[in-house]
Design a protein that fits this description.
By secondary structure, the protein is mainly alpha-helical. Helices cover 61% and strands 7% of the residues. A hairpin with a 2-residue loop joins strand 1 and strand 2. About 3% of the residues have low confidence.
Length: 204
């Protein structure tokens, strides 16, 4: 089952579905056609279309109906496309959803973010201990982790650490004084070349 927070992020467009597909294409082993299919299917969902008609989907993808059916089956087999019973005007009807794909994609990004944070945190711990010439305490480790999770660049934190090291009693809690001018990194956009490839498919 998809986490409620993922639904909210997508519904409020805090996370763009197409960007989610593009950013996880390689990690989830999606072909360009499969990725485009997911984006087209999401378009249908935003238009409240819950039933996939292979003939219509084939037209949307500019492929034959047989190819469309094969493509949909592949998405099902990979666990990206699912179906459930939904109530519609008092009747139960089968409706498709992309919840499983969203769960897998977001799960991958969370692991990626966690691994990056842990790597950066380990490097910063070494930097702090070398600079302050003492081991860090638990409270300092928590503050350092929160700064990374907030999106502050590692280079900015290192500069702040050097400034704080000049204090008579240096402590991580003073880093905020030197980070107010260093805004968190903006979200990176997909590679333009990748977007260009998808645009060609989209405009077919």
């Amino acid at each position: 089952m998809i986490k409620p927070i993922y639904k909210v992020l997508l519904k409020k467009q805090i996370i763009d579905f197409d960007q989610l597909v593009l950013s996880t294409t390689e990690a989830l082993d999606l072909s360009s056609l499969e990725a485009m299919a997911l984006m087209k299917l999401h378009q249908l969902l935003t238009k409240k279309v819950s039933l996939i008609k292979p003939k219509l989907f084939a037209t949307m993808m500019n492929i034959t109906q047989k190819e469309a059916e094969t493509l949909l089956n592949t998405l099902i087999e990979k666990g990206f496309l699912g179906f459930e019973l939904a109530e519609n005007e008092g009747k139960s009807k089968e409706a498709f959803h992309l919840n499983d794909f969203v769960e897998l994609a977001m799960g991958h990004l969370e692991k990626e973010a966690k691994a990056l944070t842990q790597s950066n945190q380990h490097a910063l711990i070494t930097f702090v201990e070398d600079t302050f010439q003492r081991p860090m305490v638990t409270a300092e480790l928590e503050i350092l982790g929160s700064l990374l999770q907030a999106g502050h660049p590692q280079s900015a934190i290192e500069r702040a650490i050097l400034e704080v090291s000049k204090y008579p009693a240096p402590h991580i809690k003073f880093l905020d004084r030197h980070l107010h001018n260093d805004a968190p990194k903006p979200t990176q956009k997909p590679n333009p070349d990748v977007l260009k490839e998808f645009k060609k498919l989209w405009e077919k």
